[in-house]
Amino acid sequence: MSGSTVSSGAILGMGNPLLDISAVVKPELLAKYELKANDAILYEKEDLFQELQQDYPVENIAGGATQNSMRVAQWILGQPGVCTFFGCVGQDESGRTLEKCAQQAGVTVKYQIHAQHPTGKCAVLITGQERSLVTKLDAANHFTPDHLEPNWGVVQAAQIYYSSGFFLTVSPDSMLKVAEYAVAEGKTFAMNLSAPFLPQFFSEPMLKVMALSGLVFGNETEAAAFAEKQGYDTKDVAEIARKIAEIPFKGSATRTVVITQGSEPVIVVENGQTQLYPVDKLSSSQIVDTNGAGDAFVGGYLAQLALGADTATAVRCGNYAAKEIIQRSGCTFPETMSFK
Ligand code: 26A
Fold first, then answer.
1. For 52-108, what is each residue's pLDDT tens digit?
2. DSSP readout, 134-164?
3. In this structure, which residue's CA is closest to atom 16 in ligand 1?
């Protein structure tokens, strides 16, 4: 699709801007805090963060699932200003670091700034090829729909909207407001299951947002958690994807469901048809950390959607972006983008 351009502000992301504090840790640390090797949870205390800073060499990297996807979409598109991002940060160094990083990637940042709470953070605990994400939301938790009104022109300018499922814990009302607008205008609102705890414990707001979402992303473990909560009598991931596609959608078209499965094929249900798209397998020595792989997949997919590409190209670009990000620390990418 080289040479194609997309209108400025075509993609709008809303989510939790987080500073990732990444460290390779011993399994004992996970055991001490009762964490799973491959999970994402909310955490209120500072103890784990203090222990990390004291006892481990840490890397601070821009994070937050939706913001990662926006940065990656920008990297793919190579045309600054296509993606805009809303989220809440504190008045501090971390907030400024995040803003700078997103701007450098070409994302237009419209943060809500909270005077009392610090910018949120996420401990990324790497053991082998797995990563446990432990998030203290702080300012990110204080995003409010009030931020939408003065920025409604940004909402109107966009064609594609995306929020990770994580934002359901913060401002489902903001997601609903934008998703309702998207449906009314025949634009696409996309969401992500994001982590097993969301379909488990936030299923009510998740289903409300899903009813307005024409595009749903997730991975195999999140799909399984969704199926269990909804009482689907199957563990078959393609079957679960079909059932998610069939949940009533208030928009005019049908819902597309895209489920990634690590290095196993990507499952896409579109117009009632199921397609499997293979993934190039990396050798384990090529994998640095899988943090951000799912976000990168979304970034690549949405970039192609904005360009008007077909689903096969969008999935291929998602896989390309994820493959690049996995070979580096955190959700970071090389200077050159070589997707064709
Ligand atoms: C509400 N929670 C738990 C979260 C997150 C999150 N982003 C938003 N909300 N927990 C982890 N992340 C981000 O996920 C990325 C990897 O997919 C991390 O910041 C990390 O960059």
1. 999 999 999 999 999 999 999 999 999 999 999 999 999 999 999 999 999 999 999
2. EEE-GGGGG--GGGTGGGHHHHHH-SEEEE-
3. 292
Determine the atom of ligand 1 nearest the C-alpha atom of 18.
Answer: 19
Domains of the chain: 11-17+64-119+137-325 (3.40.1190.20)
Take residue 25 and report the two structure tokens written for it: 């840790």
pLDDT digit string, tens, across residues 168-227: 999 999 999 999 999 999 999 999 999 999 999 999 999 999 999 999 999 999 999 999
Beta-carbon contacts of 34 under 8 Å, excluding residues fewer than 6 positions away, are: none
Q: Give CA–CA dist 27/147, Å, rounded.
A: 41
User: Which residue lies with its CA nearest to atom 4 of ligand 1?
Assistant: 166
Distance 3 CA to ligand 1 centre (A): 33
CA of 248 to the centre of ligand 1 (A): 28
pLDDT in tens, 102-158: 999 999 999 999 999 999 999 999 998 889 999 999 999 999 999 999 999 999 999
Whose alpha carbon is nearest atom 21 of ligand 1? Answer: 63
Other CB atoms within 10 A of residue 55 CB: 12
Choose among 170, 167, 132, 136: nearest CA to 39.
Answer: 132
Catalytic residues: 295
> Measuring from each residue's beta carbon to the nearest atom of ligand 1, which residues come in under 6 Å?
15-16, 18, 20, 40, 42, 63-65, 68, 122, 133, 135, 137, 164, 166, 169, 291-292, 294-295, 331
Is the CB of residue 332 less than 8 Å from the CB of residue 109? no
Cβ-contact 67, 102 below 8 angstroms? yes
